[in-house]
Design a protein that fits this description.
Layout lengths: L1 E4 L3 E5 L7 E5 L7 H11 L4 E5 L13 H10 L2 H16 L9 E6 L1 H10 L7 E5 L18 H4 L7 E6 L7 H12 L5 E6 L17 H19 L5
Helix pairs in contact: 3-4
Length: 237
């Protein structure tokens, strides 16, 4: 496997050949080691993976608790983040390791939210897999920073979606997950929202023992890999 630190983030891909690409969007804490590891894991499955660094201009924020995380997310500029994600899609599409093959997007928590928004208006995406990405926005947010939530954007979905959510997620009610699925399917795009019993937010993150759920994590990861192979055309390595 070859790995490279780029201005836009961390790139991992098999040593030889061309492979479908996946842009990976980390959670609110940014591009820390967990996401570099996930990028390598997904690259080992036959993909060229670019884990984007949304904080490359400023450095990662200090997030001491969940309330601080939510305050930070509410103040982020969606148009700026989505421009960075689009730059990652375009950079990956042009990379020799991809060679014009299809590109997908995945993301986790805040990154899952932006993966969905990218899939509802971005360019050059063929599949989207959000892990517990937030779906609705609170009332009264700055419309310049938060023009529309993923739920509001669902009618503009441009690619198939596999959503991976926890039934016990305190941040994302199951009825919102089902509502997104309904709105997405109305576009004619395939959309499956998988909900894991006994799992809450961040159930794939083994660096957070209080949140990690091994069985759900294994199943969700395998489903993501299979979905990307089906939609992007990757082969087993």
């Amino acid at each position: 496997m070859q790995t490279t630190d780029l201005e836009l983030g961390y790139l991992a891909h098999p040593e030889t050949g061309t492979h479908p690409g996946v842009v990976m969007i980390p959670d609110v804490r940014g591009l820390y080691d967990h996401f570099r590891d996930l990028a390598r894991r997904l690259a080992s499955e036959g993909f060229a993976v670019l884990a984007v660094d949304l904080y490359r201009r400023t450095g990662p924020p200090e997030i001491p608790d969940p309330a601080a995380a939510m305050r930070w997310i509410r103040e982020l500029s969606d148009p700026q983040v989505l421009a960075d994600v689009q730059a990652g899609v375009d950079r990956l599409a042009a990379h020799p390791a991809v060679g014009g093959k299809p590109i997908g997007v995945t993301g986790f928590c805040m990154g899952g939210q932006y993966a969905l928004l990218a899939a509802c208006g971005g360019r050059g995406l063929s599949a989207c897999v959000p892990f517990y990405g937030m779906l609705a926005y609170a009332e009264g947010l700055d419309p310049a920073k938060k023009p529309r939530s993923p739920l509001d954007a669902a009618s503009d979905l441009v690619c198939p979606v596999l959503g991976l959510y926890g039934e016990e997620d305190a941040l994302i009610p199951v009825d919102q997950v089902r509502e997104f699925e309904t709105r997405a399917l109305a576009t004619g795009q395939p959309c499956e929202m998988r909900i894991y019993a006994g799992a809450g937010h961040a159930f794939l993150n083994e660096t957070r023992p209080e949140a990690y759920r091994a069985e759900a994590a294994r199943d969700a990861w395998a489903r993501m890999v299979a979905f990307f192979r089906e939609t992007l055309g990757a082969s087993h390595t």
